[in-house]
């Protein structure tokens, strides 16, 4: 089975969806998310309006997020309850074909502290507990994404 994003569906074309199961009764749900529809964290288009994640160490994945057009930028604010470690990492997961968005960690002054390479920011040992940090996600196109968080594990 290939991801729906790889199907390259076209607007204005009628499609049918076949749901099959060997379970009786079968309970399932369908959700259709459109990139033009803002995600649940929307309103986070600047550092000043960053969505507050609070303690990033208790999160394993930030999911259901999107850059809904090429100029959209998503900002998140977070703190750590322990100093960052070399083994800590943040990994961007893209769901569309093409390059991954950019992921950056900034301080409150807007200085970039870490930038993703291949969608991954590794080694968060420079981050200190109790300090406020910002995560910035930007890209060249509309895209759905998630961020996997591995801190304190």
Quick overview:
The protein contains no helices and nine strands. It is mainly beta and 153 residues long. The protein has a five-stranded mixed β-sheet with strand order 1-3-8-5-6, with no helix packed on it.
- Spatial strand arrangement across the major sheet: 1-3-8-5-6
Radius of gyration: 18 Å
Label the overall shape.
globular
For the termini, the CA-CA separation is: 32 Å
Mean pLDDT across residues: 87
- Identify the quaternary structure here: single chain
Percent range of helical residues: under 10%
Largest sheet entry: 5 strands, mixed
Discrete helix count: 0
User: How does the helix and strand content classify structurally?
Assistant: mainly beta
Order of helices and strands: EEEEEEEEE
Say how many strands there are: 9
Proportion of beta-strand residues:
25-35%
Q: Which spans have pLDDT < 50 for at least 5 consecutive residues?
A: none
């Amino acid at each position: 089975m290939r991801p729906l994003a790889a199907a390259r569906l076209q607007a204005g074309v009628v499609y049918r969806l076949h749901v099959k199961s060997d379970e009786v009764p079968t309970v399932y749900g369908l959700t259709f998310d459109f990139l033009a529809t803002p995600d649940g964290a929307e309103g986070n288009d600047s550092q000043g309006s960053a969505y507050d994640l609070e303690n990033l160490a208790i999160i394993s994945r930030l999911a259901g997020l999107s850059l809904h057009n090429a100029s959209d930028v998503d900002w998140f604010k977070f703190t750590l309850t322990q100093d960052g470690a070399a083994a800590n990492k943040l990994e961007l997961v893209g769901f569309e074909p093409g390059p991954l968005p950019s992921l950056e960690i900034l301080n409150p002054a807007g200085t970039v502290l870490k930038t993703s390479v291949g969608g991954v920011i590794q080694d968060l040992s420079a981050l200190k507990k109790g300090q406020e940090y910002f995560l910035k996600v930007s890209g060249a196109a509309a895209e759905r994404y998630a961020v996997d968080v591995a801190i304190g594990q």
